Amino acid sequence: MGTHVIKMPDIGEGIAQVELVEWFVKVGDVIAEDQVVADVMTDKATVEIPSPVSGKVLALGGQPGEVMAVGSELIRIEVEGGGNHVDEPQAKPVEAVATPAPAPVAEPPRSEPQVVASQPATASATAPIVPRQASDKPLASPAVRKRALDAGIELRYVHGSGPAGRILHEDLDAFISKPHSTAGQAPSGYARRKGSEQIPVIGLRRKIAQRMQDAKRRVAHFSYVEEIDVTALEALRQQLNQKHGESRGKLTLLPFIVRAMVVALRDFPQINATYDDEAQVITRHGAVHVGIATQGDNGLMVPVLRHAEAGSLWSNAAEIARLANAARNNKANRDELSGSTITLTSLGALGGIASTPVVNTPEVAIVGVNRMVERPVVIDGQIVVRKMMNLSSSFDHRVVDGMDAALFIQAVRGLLEQPACLFVE
Questions:
Q1: Of 264, 256, 254, 260, whose CA–CA distance to 236 is shortest?
Q2: Entry pTM
Q3: Which residues neighbour 175 within 8 Å (Cβ) at sequence distance 6 or greater?
Q4: Residue 375 contacts by C-beta under 8 Å, 6 or more apart in sequence?
Q5: How far is it, in rounded angstroms, from Cα 247 to Cα 389?
Q6: Alpha carbon distances (Å) from 181 to 117, 157, 178, 187, 383
Q7: Which of 354, 322, 352 is nearest to 336 (CA)?
């Protein structure tokens, strides 16, 4: 038997170190060739590390959250044959097992409540009570129910000695008198809660924190909010979906907003730009690569819709859906998560009235979409109901002047309120 050592690979792009995000194996596991053993994270994406050999895991070279240098020992595997490693007098790698966030610092966890209460004379005084199902309403008088509510006791955990299992005042007294009876209570909305939970900031969450902190520290943010009448746009979207939805796919509002941004940016090239504040260089881009802010289970990611200026409504819609799905499932690669020139963020139905999105550096602008609502508005002296939506956008004031930002958003507004103009060349 020999030892095969897998070292942290060179993932490219000049990266000298990566963060170990998660282990998928532990010491003693027998693994197969090409089996994924760990996830590591660069500044751009999460990368899976497969094993090139089959064998038994001897040691793991780090713990989740640890930053490891390229070329450092990642994992040791016992293999048939000679392996690729000869032991030398050196420090043994840290043996570690992938562990999730520390368990809450609280009272010991409990599975199914075990409550001791008053029992008929024939029953054991320590026999546990099996609680009623949540759907089974316990029988009790209004007075007993109020008393239980005031005491923070859920009656389904109380044994009833009355007819048909009715809970009597005596049953409640017996339940309260037991010193450990509260261990079986379901939490009351008014009950005191104890304990706390510590969650390590690692992996994607650490990258998000670092990028947001860096953006707020370096960018001179200012935000601009404008309301838009999207009644005509929504009517067009529904008509197109009714006519072409089966053959071309359903359209959301996002591809229309992307199209409006593309058209408006022709007159505002300083907004489709990136700023290298160390080199003091602004780069204005011809191509419009739109970052689509996407919320996944692990946090916020920004896959990139490339060359949005060259895509139709349906091709952009399909690509947005594909990218969002890849990001949510942690399948987006480095190229799909880098190179954006402006970002579009939407909270969908949770979009609220207004927001202040954070610029995705080194970009200089981000356009935020709030939810669409029906609201009474005054048009030509008449109160009518219209579909209204706010755009909440932020800009880097070091590069974008307030006047230009306002004019850009007004141009987007004009295109969305008169959607035929989106397609007039």
A1: 256
A2: 0.64
A3: 115, 117, 118, 153, 157, 158, 159, 181
A4: 385, 386, 388
A5: 29
A6: 7, 9, 5, 13, 62
A7: 322
3-state secondary structure of 212: helix
- Note the helical H segments in 329-401: none
Tracing tokens 């609680």 back to the chain, one arrives at 131
C-alpha–C-alpha distance, residues 46 and 35, integer Å: 16
Looking at residue 93, what DSSP letter applies?
P
CB 181 within 8 A of CB 115: yes
* Integer angstrom CA distances of residue 324 from 39, 62, 369: 20, 31, 16
Summarised one tens digit per residue, pLDDT across range 335-355 is 898 999 999 999 777 778 889
Non-local (6+) Cβ contacts of 188 within 8 A are 152, 153, 154
229 has catalytic annotation: no
Contact criterion met (CB below 8 Å) for 48 and 68 = no
pLDDT tens across 97-153, in order? 443 444 443 444 444 434 333 344 333 344 444 455 555 677 888 778 888 888 878
85 is catalytic: no
Strands 342-346 and 365-379: parallel
Q: Are 98 and 56 in contact (CB under 8 A)?
A: no
User: Which residue, 292, 386, 391, 281, is CA-closest to 342?
Assistant: 292
Angstrom distance (rounded) from CA 145 to CA 167: 9
| From 10, 136, 173, 401, active-site residue | 401
Pairwise CA distance, residues 380 & 32, whole Å: 73
Contacting residues for 293 by C-beta, under 8 A, at least 6 apart:
300, 301, 302, 343, 344, 345, 346, 357, 360, 366
